[in-house]
Design brief:
two-stranded antiparallel ribbon, mainly beta, 83 residues
Length: 83
């Protein structure tokens, strides 16, 4: 399986190092549509969330409360307690 990674950059909103289109503060606007690595559908929305992705969410943002699969998608990621 091949995953298309986006080059990392500094988010202009939170100044954190981000990995492109999935970062929640300032989603990457280029390279659309792309294939979701979880559901394999072609999507144009950087904040796309599918049911396959929901099962893999591991982080929430201490700043805004958003949920994400990867910590690089959030400004202040915190691992969700599995209890």
């Amino acid at each position: 399986m091949s995953t298309d990674y986006v080059q990392t950059y500094t988010c202009p909103t939170c100044q954190q190092r981000a990995s492109g289109r999935g970062h929640m503060c300032h989603p990457f606007q280029g390279d659309s549509p792309y294939e979701c690595e979880f559901c394999k559908q072609r999507v144009t929305e950087a904040r796309h969330v599918c049911s396959s992705m929901l099962d893999k969410i591991e982080y929430n943002c201490k700043n805004c409360g958003r949920l994400a699969v990867y910590e690089s998608n959030l400004c202040e990621p915190e691992l969700i307690d599995s209890e």
